[in-house]
Automatic annotation (TrEMBL):
Keywords annotated in UniProt: Methyltransferase, Transferase
Superkingdom, taxonomy of origin: Eukaryota
The protein, known as: Guanine methyltransferase Trm5
Organism: Lindgomyces ingoldianus
Length: 457
């Protein structure tokens, strides 16, 4: 059976989606089952003989095409079109069957192939198939050549993805986003409703997608970094957004100071902290990131905070002898005085924030650098913090060139040489952003020479 036999009808002149156009009748054969009790046995035999129609999208057992037989529950089993019709043979009879397909059968790519004419000899190899889902919103980034078909694309995409109610297309060029990483968009399908709710790492985030930054394709990256955090760690999230790192880390009972410059991100971060019940562990702020790195570090050193951890099991109201008095905590977590990790997820410019780490521990009022130095290894088991800085780099065939380029940029901002051979350095390839652009995360331990710069031994 050729693919054309079950392909949808073609209309390259369609400008407005006409779902009724996509009707097709495929002449084939069916095995009429005379006794409903024999359906399972006959189906097994037909599969064994390779005569059954094998198509996961088409139900093989159908009502008999004869109305009278169908009225009393008569069934048949679809067969390959090559099977010839004949009279009754044992428990079945092979009959002609007109299989009717409509718009609901055909998938997104099949409809797109039928509507959009091939642009060149490559045919439809680059049809827009990728999109991001943020709650009920599908986010497209269409190439110019597909803009004439944007409403058709959006309508079919929504039809074939039941959870999609709004489809938008990004209007900005890559790299021209605002300081808050928001973007201009147009609604291609559905209401202009950008209030979304998404779930990640067992946490719930609600926000207006038009006013804050969120990228669902970074879910794996959020999980990867959060897996590095240990219960009781102190985390400094410099560009926290609505909290995709901070709130899951708070769920792990890490102490997180989460900051974002965007007032809307800060608002939804506050709501997310309450919704996910991590207020004991996550402290939200709305400051400039350059200043925040220093103020958060100083404030953490000077403040104290502890959280009792209680058993997860709740006391049943039906318990005839419930324990009296306040519950006893399993343990008490004391917040460290030093951050274990600094996270800077602003790939367009995060590297430019690195100068804030120069002399980080040598300029804190009221605490001498030598006193701070004694808090770190070898005097204690506390190492200097890990810095996780996100950035973009030009794409190449391998990541060696990108690694050297990223290290040069980090070295320039820190005033200290960092190379691909630096111990504990990891340059993680996060994802493709554009045909010649990739996103990376460079993780390295803050050099002592940088952190205590300006302090004489």
């Amino acid at each position: 059976m050729s693919a054309d036999m079950i392909a949808p009808p073609v209309n390259h002149a369609m400008k407005v989606l006409d779902r009724s156009f996509f009707q097709k009748t495929v002449p084939t054969s069916a095995a009429r089952i005379f006794n409903p009790k024999n359906i399972a046995t006959c189906r097994t035999e037909l599969h064994r003989a390779q005569d059954a129609w094998l198509n996961a999208r088409i139900a093989p057992i159908r009502l008999d095409p004869d109305e009278e037989r169908a009225r009393v529950g008569g069934k048949c089993i679809l067969l390959r079109p090559e099977v010839l019709h004949n009279e009754r043979s044992g428990t079945v009879g092979v009959i002609p069957y007109d299989l009717r397909l409509d718009y609901s059968y055909f998938n997104y790519l099949e409809i797109m192939n039928a509507i959009i004419p091939p642009s060149d000899q490559s045919g439809h190899d680059d049809l827009p198939t990728g999109f991001s889902m943020v709650g009920h919103v599908a986010h497209l980034n269409l190439r110019d050549k597909y803009l004439p078909y944007k409403h058709l694309i959006a309508a079919v995409l929504a039809d074939k993805n039941p959870t999609v109610t709004t489809v938008i297309n990004k209007l900005d060029n890559v790299g021209s986003e605002s300081a808050y990483r928001t973007f201009q968009y147009e609604v291609l399908y559905g209401p202009d409703d950008m209030d979304v709710t998404v779930s990640e790492q067992h946490c719930t985030f609600s926000f207006n997608f038009a006013n804050v930054y969120w990228n669902s394709r970074l879910q794996g990256e959020h999980e990867r970094l959060c897996d590095m955090f240990q219960e009781g760690d102190a985390i400094c999230d410099v560009m926290a957004g609505v909290g995709p790192f901070a709130i899951p880390a708070g769920k792990k009972k890490c102490f997180v100071w989460a900051n974002d410059l965007n007032p809307d991100s800060y608002k939804y971060l506050l709501e997310g902290i309450q919704k996910n019940k991590v207020a004991d562990f996550v402290r939200p702020l709305n400051e400039d990131g350059h200043e925040f790195i220093r103020t958060a570090t100083a404030d953490l050193l000077k403040s104290e905070h502890s959280v009792p951890v209680f058993p997860k099991k709740k006391i049943s109201r039906k318990d005839p002898n419930p324990p009296k008095g306040p519950r006893e905590p399993l343990k008490t977590l004391v917040r460290p005085r030093l951050f274990s990790h600094y996270v800077m997820n602003l790939p367009a410019s995060a590297i430019a924030f690195l100068p804030s780490f120069i002399g980080l521990y040598s300029t804190i009022p009221g605490i001498s650098a030598n006193e701070i130095r004694r808090l770190f290894t070898p005097h204690t088991e506390t190492p200097l913090p890990m810095i996780h800085v996100y950035c973009f780099s030009t794409k190449s065939d391998d990541n060696i060139a990108e690694g050297h380029d990223i290290c040069r940029r980090i070295s320039r901002e820190l005033g200290h040489e960092v190379t691909p051979a630096t111990p504990e350095l990891q340059i993680w390839d996060v994802r493709d952003v554009a045909p010649k652009k990739r996103m990376f995360c460079a993780s390295f331990r803050l050099p002592e020479e940088v952190a205590f710069k300006g302090v004489e031994d």
